[in-house]
TrEMBL record:
Keyword Ribosomal protein included in the entry's annotation: no
Alphabetical list of InterPro entries matching this protein: AP-4-A_phosphorylase (IPR052908), FHIT (IPR039383), HIT-like (IPR011146), HIT-like_sf (IPR036265)
Location of the HIT domain: 47-155
Protein residues bound to substrate: N72, H144
Keywords, ordered alphabetically: Nucleotide-binding, Nucleotidyltransferase, Transferase
GO MF term (any one): nucleotidyltransferase activity
Active-site residues, Swiss-Prot/TrEMBL: H142 (tele-amp-histidine intermediate)
Protein name (Swiss-Prot/TrEMBL): ATP adenylyltransferase
């Protein structure tokens, strides 16, 4: 084969085929364990560190009194959000009533904002408890809000591996944060 300066797929070894390639190097970072805490302490915890960062830097969409909403750095779908209590707590039963209410209210707000901005056909809501339950950061509870569209992959590929994400995270955060004030309708829950 003649040498060329480019990196055309046809120049690589092997037979060309009809498949499109979907390159998702951000998933490899995840698989390699980037951002995984070395232990379960708050000092190592990304969910404890995020609120101290700026909204754009931390991908924070909204901040409440007891919980905040952040874009998932490794999204299953575009607009994949998480409602997270500020307090470093691993288990759902360990949340106070007020924290439970605000995580719930922020989850409702996230759904309203995603409906207003990108009209998903459905949602998956969920908390993965413990590493064996699928939690990437098991020590700090977080509620996933995953928008779903007709014709996107079914849930098994979503939980099992790679997923194309067509929108850059920063752009998504800007759009959702701007829509939050108008559409989230989250009431204060500190009266609990
Ligand atoms: Zn934490």
């Amino acid at each position: 084969m003649a040498a060329t300066g480019g990196e055309r797929a046809a120049d690589f070894a092997g037979d060309a085929d009809g498949f499109e390639r979907l390159w998702t190097p951000h998933r490899m970072v995840y698989i390699d364990g980037a951002d995984k805490p070395a232990d379960d302490t708050p000092r190592q915890c990304p969910f404890c560190a995020i609120p101290a960062r700026g909204d754009e830097d931390g991908l924070v969409v909204a901040r409440g009194d007891l919980a905040y909403v952040v874009l998932n750095l490794y999204p299953y779908n575009p607009g994949h959000l998480m409602a997270v209590p500020y307090r470093h707590v691993a288990g759902y039963p360990e949340l106070t009533t007020a924290e439970l209410a605000e995580v719930g209210a922020m989850t409702q707000g996230a759904i309203r904002v995603l409906r207003a901005t990108s009209a998903p056909a459905g949602f998956n809501l969920g908390v993965n408890q413990g590493a064996v339950g699928g939690a990437g950061i098991a020590a700090h509870l977080h509620q996933h809000v995953v928008p779903r569209w007709q014709g996107d992959a079914n849930f098994m590929p979503i939980v099992a591996g790679t997923k194309p994400v067509p929108q850059l995270l920063g752009e998504t955060r800007d759009r959702l944060a701007a829509a939050w004030a108008e559409h989230a309708e989250v009431e204060a829950v500190t009266t609990c």
